[in-house]
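Title: Prediction job returns without error message
Component: structure pipeline
Severity: low
Priority: P3
Assignee: unassigned

Description:
Job completed but the reporter wants confirmation the result is attached to the right record. Sequence as submitted:
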Amino acid sequence: MVSLGVLGVVSQVTLAMQPLFKRSVTFVKRGDADLPPQVAAWGRLHEFGDMTWLPQEGQVLYRQDDRVDVSSPGDGLNDLLFFRSSPTRGLVAARAAEERLQENGTDAARCAAVRTDVAAAERQGYGYTNDGVSFTGYPVVGYQHRIQTFGSCIDSPEDGLRSACAWDPRVRGPFFYNSAFSVALSRAPAFVADMQRLRDLDPGALCAGLDGRVGVLIRYVRASSACLGKADDSVDFDLIYYRSRSAGGKPRAHADVVDEIEQMALRKYGGLPHWGKNRNSAFDGAIARYPKAGEFLRVKEKYDPDGLFSSEWSDQVLGVNGGSPSIVGKRCAIEGLCVCSDDSHCAPEQGYFCRPGKVYTEARVCSFLRAQ
């Protein structure tokens, strides 16, 4: 059993060895009309399968990823495009272009930019190579360790910042939020159908609200007996979206769509937030959704009575002493510090007001209404 991260320390590790094997990966793009039933079935069809939904395009990228015998020919490598070293000037220029689209761009312009990037990634096999150098077609067959792990940037040589990893804080490159949450497998089809209904109201909104180049990454997680594990087999949804570098945050285009999706997952469908990939508001009340939360807190108190491994933030997330991770105040919903309940939590002076969601009407999101 392993316990690690902000909520604990490694206590015990048990390793189970397996004979060396390879994996065979093929990406298949299909329309998303049948996505709700597929999201419940796909994880059982392929051992390592997942999917990437491009909602604004009405398409799904299915990854057929299965174990094959070690004698299968191929020395494929998963070298994700975003996790490669890139010219620093290119990273800065791309961020500047993204900021211009946020400030002055139209949904049509944002969607056009997304389609260009998605097409380029498809031509490059999404970062997979057949021999560690070039992509020549599917399937990509390679050893488990070369397919499971990805990203060559960390091994790239130092060159005086002429090139950099996209996340390097010394470079004014990409800057975004990453939110992730899991929904029980039995409820995931209904959740996806609601997301489709929200998309259908304004497909262009998702080119700006979400990072359309990445789409919605959909993965599968088995139920766990751990105190803070998933009680049910679940589907993980991973979202990436623009974040302003301005102090205190700045409203982003179609933020209400993303916030409604998040609240829908967590509140309507009882989803669980990823412990490391969310803003404050997602954790409010989350601990109550874990059946073994009380057991975890008792163990925590037993082994760490002085709170050595605790912090103000972790106590708030865990609901210790009635704490809450939400920080309510002016413009708090812009940065996800709260779920809005008053217009002042948005940015009314810029035309953003607290309103119900469009599909999940119990949601409260900052909607752009121009003038009131």
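Comment from assignee: result matches the submitted record. The domain at 22-154+173-282 is CATH 3.40.462.10 (Vanillyl-alcohol Oxidase; Chain A, domain 3).
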